[in-house]
Design a protein that fits this description.
There is one protein chain. The protein is of the alpha/beta class. 41% of the residues lie in helices and 16% in strands. It folds into 2 domains: 18-261, Aspartate Aminotransferase, domain 2 (3-Layer(aba) Sandwich); 264-397, Aspartate Aminotransferase, domain 1. It has helices spanning 18-23, 37-51, 64-73, 89-100, 118-127, 151-160, 211-218, 229-236, 247-263, 265-285, 314-323, 351-367, 376-386, 390-397, and strands spanning 7-9, 56-61, 81-86, 104-109, 133-139, 141-142, 147-148, 166-170, 189-193, 204-209, 290-291, 303-307, 327-331, 340-344. The longest helix has 21 residues, at 265-285. The radius of gyration is 22 Å and the shape is globular. The termini are far apart.
Length: 398
Amino acid sequence: MRNGTTHLFIPGPTNIPEAVRQAMNVPMQDMRAPDFGELTLPLFAGLKKVFKTDSRVFMFPGSGTGAWEAAISNTLNTGDKVLISRFGQFSHLWVDMCERLGLDVVSLDVEWGEGVPLEDYAKILEADTAHEIRAVFATQNETATGVTSDIAGVREVLDAAGHPALLFVDGVSSIASIDFRMDEWGVDLAVAGSQKGFMMPAGLSMLGVSEKAFEAHKSSRMARCYFSFEDMLKLNDDGYFPYTPPTQLFYGLRKSLELIEEEGLENVFARHNRLATGVRHAVAAWEGCRLCAAEPKWYSDTVSAIIVPEDVDAKDVLSIGYNKYRTSFGAGLARLAGRVFRIGHLGDLNEVMCLAALGSAEMALIEAGAKIELGSGVAAAQAHYTGVDHMALRLAAE
């Protein structure tokens, strides 16, 4: 018999607050009922606050990948040239989607552990005097490597070059957890997903669309059906959808937005930073381990990708953590398989939960062969969370 809680510390799906889970426990209802908009219209307004935009935010049934496709297919045309960089599995997948949808992709391969290369973007955009590049893509938070990029910096690069390209941002593992300012940063299309900072099950994607993107939509002829803006626009203003919507998820989102507003969005960002910094202190205390993120400017506040010592297989860490200590950590993806395990620290999370993740990780690391000191990472995180260096106090007392 296995007692107690099974712990989830992957970077999504994240833990669901009990209040959100209970909010979704409602009977089915008529999605064409005259009062259905009373549920859905406030959700659109709440999402605008989280995206920090006065423009429109769509909700599509599906994962963030669906919103990616909606963003591309509704604003670009086959053969359009786009600029994108890849530095992890998810930014790589966005490149793959662009290529499969027939775009002319200028792809910059960046070292995994770094983020959007602003200087390279600047050179390419400044040289593109004919403005052949129709869109610039940026992944704000690369979940595979624990890297966060500077989206405001991308906008500065575009403006400095006087370039009119649309700015697409993958905010799936950042929006509602890491500072994101759609209007201030001039983001034209921003993608989010329910299973990350919104603390819900997977199955609902959100897409913020600027007025500039709607202008581009008028000349877009790319094939689309399920993700058509036109179909959404005909019904969304009254709170309805062109197909059967995920009503239970709407109830969960309503509660999630209430929780975010109650805490305060800026406080949500500060909490994520505080918790993530504690995890980073722990990793620094583990001999032979280090973050995949190459330097502090890239550190993510939603996920830490941890490179294990060379004589340790990260797959063993994952297996021991799951099978013996009932803890799920994120696996290393693609070229990082066996070299990295990931601790997701986003959504419904607090200090003690982070300490549980670190304690389980330490035991799994040691049993996998790492030569770290038991309790070292936990103590380092505790010192950060409490603001007290207990080791220094003990040495002083002696």
